């Protein structure tokens, strides 16, 4: 099983801030990482796959980087719609696993 | 428009069984693997089971292996999860999601709205 450490678990930020979320793997996974956004009471939505490819329709202020064991999700200019919980997910080997989540709240 | 609509959740006693469903529309169902992902109250996401587009192959997480069975009916564009020997630890919102298999789409590009399964006496 590939273990994932996502940090921070809680991030307090203001509108307009640049924020970064980290996801670290217990072993290398090449580029096989996705990021999801989940708002309270809603299903997750895919933001990024293959570590850095933006899903169609996702605003360009979201970006992903990394390969191997260390990955980052960046929101370049935080908007009110971005306050949510973010999860990383590896699809390098079964079982697919998710990070513990990062909640982005209003400062 | 791709849509996934889960149904069948509810309250079940420990040791009981339940079958939940996911009706798909807006895409060629048989061409895609689909999975079940669950989320316990206030917790994170857990992939539990995935099945190939043809239905010929499936994988389960250890937490449900031997108790849950994933299946699909491509003629009805519907995914199922038969859950047996349920315990309180299985209480969660169950999402169906497109993708999540070893071949083809590995990540989850579309999700249903979820169905709540509560295991309690």
Largest sheet of chain A: 7 strands, mixed
Number of helices of chain A: 0
Residue stretches of chain A low in confidence (pLDDT < 50, at least 5 long) are none
Could you say which structural class the secondary elements and strand pairing of chain A correspond to?
A: mainly beta
Q: What is the alpha-carbon Rg of chain A in Å? A: 13 Å
Q: Percentage of helical residues of chain A?
A: under 10%
Outline the biggest β-sheet of chain B.
7 strands, mixed
Using CB atoms under 8 Å apart, which protein chain pair has the greatest interface?
A-B, 22 and 21 residues
Overall 3D form of chain B? globular
What's the quaternary structure here? heterodimer
Describe the structure.
- Chain A has about 110 residues and is mostly beta strands.
- Chain A has no helices and 11 strands.
- Chain A has strands spanning about 5, 10-15, 20-25, 35-40, 45-50, 55, 60-65, 70-75, 85-90, 95-100, 100-105.
- In chain A, strands 2, 4, 5, 6, 9, 10 and 11 form a 7-stranded mixed sheet that branches. A 4-stranded antiparallel sheet of chain A has the order 1-3-8-7, with no helix packed on it.
- Chain A is globular and about 35 Å long.
- The N and C termini of chain A lie far apart (about 35 Å).
- With about 120 residues, chain B is mostly beta strands.
- Chain B is built from no helices and 11 strands.
- Chain B has strands at about 5, 10, 20-25, 35-40, 45-50, 60, 70-75, 80-85, 90-100, 110, 115-120.
- In chain B, the strands form 2 sheets. In chain B, strands 2, 4, 5, 6, 9, 10 and 11 form a 7-stranded mixed sheet that branches. In chain B, strands 1-3-8-7 form a 4-stranded antiparallel sheet, with no helix packed on it.
- In chain B, a hairpin with a 5-residue loop joins strand 4 and strand 5 (about 45-50).
- Chain B is globular and about 40 Å long.
- The model of chain B has no long low-confidence stretch (mean pLDDT about 95).
- The interface of A and B includes residues 34, 43, 45 and 95 of A.
């Amino acid at each position: 099983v590939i273990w994932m450490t996502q940090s921070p678990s809680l991030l307090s930020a203001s509108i307009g801030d640049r924020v970064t979320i980290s996801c670290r793997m217990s072993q290398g996974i090449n580029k096989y990482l996705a990021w999801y956004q989940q708002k309270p009471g809603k299903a997750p939505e895919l933001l990024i796959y293959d570590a850095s490819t933006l899903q169609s329709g996702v605003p360009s202020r979201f970006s992903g980087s990394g390969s191997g064991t260390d990955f980052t999700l960046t929101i370049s200019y935080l908007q009110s719609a971005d306050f949510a919980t973010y999860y990383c997910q590896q699809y390098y080997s079964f079982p697919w696993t998710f990070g513990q989540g990062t909640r982005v709240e209003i400062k | 428009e791709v849509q996934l609509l889960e149904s069948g959740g509810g309250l079940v006693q420990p040791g009981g069984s339940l079958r939940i469903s996911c009706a798909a529309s807006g895409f060629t169902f048989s061409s895609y693997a689909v999975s079940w992902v669950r989320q316990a109250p206030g917790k994170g996401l857990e992939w539990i089971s995935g099945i190939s587009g043809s239905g010929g192959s499936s994988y389960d997480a250890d937490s449900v292996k031997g108790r849950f069975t994933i299946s699909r009916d491509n003629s009805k564009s519907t995914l199922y999860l038969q859950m047996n020997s349920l315990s309180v630890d299985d209480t969660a919102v169950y999402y169906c999601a497109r993708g999540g298999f070893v071949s083809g789409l590995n990540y989850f590009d579309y999700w249903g709205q979820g169905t709540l399964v509560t295991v309690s006496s």
